[in-house]
Amino acid sequence: MFQREYTVQGTDVNDFMVMQSDAYLKYASKIVETFLFVKGYTKLKMNTLKVGLQKQSDQLNQNKPLLFTQKFTMLLEFKNIDYTLQKMTILVSFYNSKNEPVASLQREFSWFDYSSWQVITPPKVITKYFKQETILNKAS
């Protein structure tokens, strides 16, 4: 899991000062980019590797509105990596300042190779950061 805090900006809201759906999508992309940056995969490094992310589908579920200047927290979770279908699924959860769930966004994306112009299986050097590892204790 990966977490970041943001504040609703003026460009994110509609005339009623409520955060718009496209802003949720923008912040979801931003947290994935931030996660990769923290792990050492900047846009420059991704371009050098000639790979990038290609969004396939988004499912946004909004529970409560986020208002202009309101602080919110985003939590990034990795659901699964499907090597046969060459896609990954993530869940981005949005929480308001009271830590109440506001929205969730499930996104499927694939890795794209810019040299061959094809969807590829996720690169192992990068996907090691996306795997959820469970530590199992030995039963005595």
Description of the molecule:
The protein is an alpha+beta fold and 140 residues long. The protein has one domain: Thiol Ester Dehydrase, Chain A, CATH 3.10.129. The protein is 21% helix and 40% strand. It has three helices and six strands; from the N terminus they run E-H-H-E-E-E-E-E-H. Strand 3 (71-82) and strand 4 (87-96) form a beta hairpin. The two termini are 30 Å apart. Pfam families: 4HBT_2.
CATH topology: Thiol Ester Dehydrase, Chain A
Number of strand elements: 6
Instruction: Tell me what the CATH architecture is.
Output: Roll
Element-by-element helix/strand order: EHHEEEEEH
Strand content: 35-45%
Pfam families: 4HBT_2
InterPro entries: HotDog_dom_sf
In short, what is this structure?
InterPro entries: HotDog_dom_sf. The chain is an alpha+beta fold. It has 3 helices and 6 strands.
Strands, helices and their partners?
Blueprint: E1 2-7, H1 21-38, H2 43-49, E2 51-62, E3 71-82, E4 87-96, E5 101-113, E6 118-120, H3 124-127
Antiparallel strand pairs: 1-3, 2-5, 3-4, 4-5, 5-6
Protein traits:
140 residues, 40% strand, elongated, 3 helices, alpha+beta, Thiol Ester Dehydrase, Chain A, six-stranded antiparallel sheet
